[in-house]
Amino acid sequence: MSESFYLRLLFFFNIVLVFLSIPISVADIRIKEDTLKAVYSFKFGKFVQWPESKLNNSKKTLGYCILGKNPFTNAAFKSIENALVKGRKLKIQIYSSGLLSDDALQDCHIVYVSQSEKNHQQHILAVLRNRPILTISDIDGFSQKGGMITLININERIHFEINPVAFKRAGLKVSSKLIELARLVTEETSEHKQ
Fold first, then answer.
1. Phi first, then psi: what are they for 18, rounded to 5°?
2. 128: domain CATH number?
3. What band does 14 get if pLDDT is binned at 50, 70 and 90?
4. 58: exposed, middle or buried (C-beta count within 10 Å: 0-12, 13-18, 19+)?
5. CA-to-CA distance for 105 and 83, rounded, in angstroms?
6. Residues 69 and 116 sit within 8 Å (Cβ to Cβ)
7. Among 90, 119, 179, 184, which residue's Cβ finds the most Cβ atoms within 10 Å?
8. Mean pLDDT, all residues of the chain
């Protein structure tokens, strides 16, 4: 079957996920997990409202920044390239060093924190804590540590957790439609953090 068939199939199942609340099964549709995670993480941007100050720049792109080792294959990137979020073309940047400069922080609207940064997530989240940047990862406990969305694979289905406090702190508004599909988590307090 052609690649365009799989991309159309992926698009269809994404519509099912978002509007009918049916989780996508990695096994059932034979789409790799990394492709689903890439699509989910960009689609989340459609349900988030950034402050005008974050969107009010001369660039007509929406920065999708990967922090750490790139977890996505070329097929995953092809599934999201040229995608539009809030009328802006998704601009993918990879910061394999795990560090974001001040300029990068200005250009990033979504930051996907790779598994390679698991041991540095506390520092990364501290840097991003009060910035209007949507933070997403598949690191276990990411949302409890202060991240906004954690992607999790349960029985070959991709689900997600949301930390509403992290959204509020960053000045981002998340759609109630997305909240309804998620498992809400509570952020660990400083005395419970290791």
1. -70, -40
2. 3.40.50.2300
3. low
4. exposed
5. 21
6. yes
7. 90
8. 82
Q: Report the largest interatomic distance among the alpha carbons of the chain, rounded to a whole angstrom.
A: 53
Which amino acid is it at 134?
Answer: L
Q: How far apart are CA 91 and CA 141, in angstroms?
A: 27
**In which band, very low, low, confident or very high, does the pLDDT at 1 lie, cut at 50, 70 and 90?**
low
Amino acid at 29: I
Instruction: Determine if the pTM surpasses 0.85.
Output: no
Domain count, the chain: 1
Domain carrying residue 54 = 3-184
Write the CB contacts of 179 (distance below 8 Å, at least 6 apart in sequence): 162, 164
Contact between 139 and 115 under an 8 Å Cβ cutoff? The reply is yes
Cα distances from 101 to residues 59, 62, 95, 104, 128, in angstroms, run 18, 17, 10, 5, 12
Contact between residue 43 and residue 177 where contact means Cβ atoms under 8 Å apart: no
Q: Is residue 133 part of a domain?
A: yes
* 103 burial level (CB within 10 Å; 0-12, 13-18, 19+): exposed
Report if residue 7 sits inside a domain.
yes
